[in-house]
Amino acid sequence: MDPKDILKGDKRAIARLMTLVEDEDPHGMEVLRALHKHTGHAHIVGVTGAPGVGKSTLVYRMAKGLRERGERVGIVAVDPSSPFTGGALLGDRIRMMEIATDPEVFIRSMGTRGCLGGLSRKTYEIVKILDAWGADTILVETVGTGQAEVDVVQAVQTCIVVMVSGLGDEVQTFKAGIMEIGDLFVINKADRGGADRLFLEVKAMLEMGQAPGKWDPPIIKTIATSIEGVAEVLDAMKKHYKVSKETGVLGRKCMERAMLDIEDIVRDRMMAGLLTPQKKELMKSLCKKVADKKMDPYEAAQKVLCE
Amino acid sequence: MAKGKSGSKAKKTGKGSSKGKAGTKQAAAACPPQPSTAGHRIRVLVAKPGLDGHDRGAKVVARGLRDSGMEVIYTGLRQTPEQIVATAVQEDVDVIGLSCLSGAHMTLFPKIMELLKKAGASDILVTAGGIVPADDVPKLKKLGISAVFGPGTTLDDIVDYIRKNVKR
Predict the structure, then answer these.
(1) Which residues of A touch B90 (CB under 8 A)?
(2) Class of CATH domain B41-165
């Protein structure tokens, strides 16, 4: 595969490369390396929140709005893989089929493949490919998240937390984790009861964290099925991007991301070098002893590392 | 990425799942058996072309393929051939499973095959299911649809067929 095909916008080649990268094929990694210097153009936006809050519908509406503004849009939608079989039902696209044939839109669904932080192991790499393709904005939709699946914050530049009313009292908004990662909060299905109350709860929570010179996350009420509030969301996320650039936050995030990238690759390579088939066999043979309490797991690990 | 390799992977995952069922307690208590993350995982597009609102069958098949360790992308109801082909290309699927119970298969399926060819994606394995009269089956096969699964087909038949016939 030629990196030029990706830069040229050959959708089949782009999709093929994504598969190779997801499958951790060495050739895919080579092409990805060649594309690295062509990335950095796109505004990467994460959309996260509990299952069923309307992430996919909102992403679809946002993509449509961005297209009307003349942007090229990439979408990565992550759904959970089974921890037992590795299979997955990737259903986010169902909400987005109206834009499936738009040549300036590329949608890719991914299974988490064992990753627990709300994204899949290779989400960031897929984002990179869309960036190299020339997407102006890339929307990354996480799996339906709980309180602590916050990997998305490391993969994106602007993070949108989508909420709906009726999922608990105001203490939920004060908890650490997902409520800390929003650069922008969306209260979707705002035509349902309790949306105003939730708005005030989130507002009260955010006001406590306010500081001069710090980005003040807006809270926007939307009804994604009827497009209400979507333009406001787009304006707010673009404003966040601009402010992040101006204040140097974005540059800092890019550095952090680069550090993580290097760390991930180093860790992967070290693990691959360490966990040879022989070592894996050894681990298997020690399993029984540890399960039967004849050996503790620390001793077993020491044996694996030393032998 | 050879055919044999993905076949052996599929077998491995199958073993993992039966273990999980036999010892549910063990599966629930310990960390779940980790399916391999590297290597190719078969990706299937389950598609409902045309004005046909019956998707129970498509959903059952989607669920069955998921449980056999494949990644299944479901389009939802009432899709145009263009939407289906664009999705198949972007998702880089190995297989497309077309479901049609409305009787419009002889209009919709040829159109999809033609668009796949145009997109340079004729290598994707295409199978069909739903209500297809026996007389139409040879015609569809001539178009390049490799198998037609009618009523009474078991999920195992479909899973086995896909595993044996995917190209990577």
Answers:
(1) 11, 14-15, 100, 106-108
(2) alpha beta
For the entire predicted model, the pTM comes to 0.88
Q: A189 and A70: one domain?
A: yes
Average pLDDT by stretches of 10, chain B with 168 residues: 38 39 39 62 96 93 96 94 97 97 95 97 96 96 96 96 93
Mutate: best of A20, A27, A89, A271, partner B, most B CBs <10 A: A89
User: Could you list the residue range(s) of the whole structural domain that residue A1 is in?
Assistant: 1-38
Of A23, A81, A107, the CB nearest to B40: A23
In a domain, A146, yes or no: yes
Residue A109 β-bridge partners: A77
The pLDDT tens digits for A156-196 are 999 999 999 988 777 777 777 888 899 999 999 999 999 99
Is the per-residue pLDDT at A27 higher than 60?
yes
- The yes-or-no verdict on residue A129 having pLDDT over 80 is yes
Residues of A in contact with B37 (CB under 8 A): 24, 113-114, 121
Query: Range with the lowest mean pLDDT among A7-21, A270-284, B3-17, B73-87?
Result: B3-17
Total domains in the fold of chain A: 3
Indicate the SS3 state at residue B147: strand
Cβ distance A90 to B27 less than 8 Å, yes or no, reads no
How far does the CA of residue B33 sit from the closest CA of chain A (Å)? Answer: 6
Query: Are A5 and A123 in the same domain?
Result: no
